[in-house]
Amino acid sequence: MGPSLTFKLGKTPISLNWTLLGLVAITALLAAGPLALWYPDISSTGRILGATAGVIAFFASIFVHEAAHAWMGRRHKVEVSGITLWLFGGLTEFTSRVPDAKAEFQIAVVGPASNGIIGVGLAGLAVVLDRLDSKPMEGFPAGIIAGLALMNLMVAAFNLIPAPPLDGGRLLAAGLWKRAGDADVAKLQAGRAGLVMWSGLVAVGIFMISQELSAFNGWWALALGVFFALVARGEIMNAALSRRLRATNTQGLMSQYPTPVNDRLTVTDLLNWSGVHGADTAYPVTRWGTEPVGYVVPAVGGGLEPAAQSWTTVSDMMVRAEDAPRAWADESLDSLLARLEPQTQLVVIHDVETGLEVGTLSTAQIRPLLKAPDFWGRERTSLRRNQMAPH
Predict the structure, then answer these.
(1) Bridging pattern class, strands 326-328 and 346-350
(2) What is the per-residue DSSP string for 88-141?
(3) Whole-angstrom Cα distance, residue 387 to residue 249?
(4) Confidence band of 388 (pLDDT split at 50, 70, 90)
(5) Residues 372, 180: Cα–Cα separation, whole Å
(6) What residue spans of the chain are helical by DSSP H?
(7) With 60 as the cut, is the pLDDT of residue 390 above it?
(8) 365 near 280, Cβ under 8 Å?
(9) 349, 255 Cβ separation under 8 angstroms
């Protein structure tokens, strides 16, 4: 979403996105528009102060909404990477999988519930203030609080729409998860429902604009529909990719007992040799024919200048044996990728029963499985033909 100001509140990083600068314009429009119309006897300074207080209080309630998600996530042992607030709401980012459908439901529902509680509480406070003698403010504080109450109740209701990325979409996914028993299938189906719903909103916006029914509402519906449809599409892609990686284990993808190479070979010789054996395979590197002292992926050397390839040796570019990441043959790719560093070139695979080394897996060999599925989240034909066996 672009640049942001980030600070920590307890253990949680909070990011204030640059789009929040738009709140200045919203505050000015609120003071000069509705508040001027409803409270003409209040000074312009008073209206600006009231609008400012209202806008700040509203985004404080949005923060409470997101903080509630984070709190419930931590109760279910789900890692929270941070909360981002931007002009049109907020986002709580989780870095680990939700354990079950019950946790998914509770994490999702607590956000709208917090806005509902805030809305009801503010509505009660507004009624009490309105019954008191409000002169000379003429009900101004009560009106601001009533507006906040209405906005919170609207946020709660809007978020319950059963379409991602709204909380209602997560509630739908939780229900589908409980029924189907598969989190990724549930999220895929919920994402598709969201894509259909938001595409419908786009169509409504286009219709309103073309028929000159309401240009403002039409453009608003169009913009909102396009944005949420793109996010729903992202949910579909993430769910389909997660499902694919979870169904593929390292054994189904690894190179079994690859041929060792000598550590004194130059990169040029290695690339010529691997042109027959496979440049994306991770090969053990031996010295004097003993145990591997490292591992090398020839394709990595292809990034060197031709002159450098002629004098750089395998020993210079290999990953040392003690530094090479390790994995069991039955580990799923989603679990493996979650713990690998971004710069990782290869993984050494070990048999579950014997503990012995049985193969290698380079990140280049994983890359084809990271290709996006089609628009609806279905596997592309070429990938289906080569799909690895589930573990």
Answers:
(1) parallel
(2) TEEEEEE-S---SHHHHHHHHHHHHHHHHHHHHHHHHHHHHHHHS--TTSTTHH
(3) 11
(4) very low
(5) 24
(6) 22-32, 34-38, 44-75, 101-131, 140-159, 167-180, 183-210, 215-246, 250-253, 267-277, 298-301, 306-311, 314-317, 333-339, 363-366, 381-385
(7) no
(8) yes
(9) no
Taking residues 353-381, report their average pLDDT.
88
- Inter-residue contact 135 to 115 (CB < 8 Å): no
User: Cα–Cα distance between 384 and 378 in angstroms, integer?
Assistant: 10
Q: Which two tokens stand for residue 3?
A: 């640049």
What SS3 class is residue 13?
A: strand
| Mean per-residue pLDDT, 145-156 | 95
b (16+ CB within 10 A) / e for 102-112:
ebbbbbbbbbb
Tell me, what amino acid is at 141?
P
DSSP code of residue 173: H
Question: What CATH number labels 250-385?
Answer: 3.10.580.10
From CA 284, how far away is CA 318, in angstroms rounded? Answer: 9
Asked whether the beta carbons of 18 and 4 are under 8 A apart, the reply is yes
* Domain ranges (residues) in the chain: 4-160, 180-246, 250-385
Q: Which of 171, 217, 215, 209 is nearest to 190 (CA)?
A: 171
Q: Residue 17's closest CA among 75, 84, 78, 77?
A: 84
Torsions phi, psi for 83 (to 5 deg): -125, 130
What pTM was computed for the model?
Answer: 0.80
Instruction: State how far the alpha carbon of 237 is from the alpha carbons of 187, 192, 231, 343, in Å.
Output: 10, 10, 10, 24
Q: pLDDT (tens digit, 9 = 90+) per residue, 200-253?
A: 999 999 999 988 787 888 898 999 999 999 999 999 999 999 999 998 999 999
CA gap 172, 39 in Å, rounded = 42
What is the rounded distance in angstroms from the CA atom of residue 212 to the CA atom of residue 210?
5
Q: What is the CA radius of gyration of the chain?
A: 28
Alpha-carbon gap, residue 96 to 335, rounded angstroms: 10
C-alpha angle 381/188/155, rounded to 5°?
150
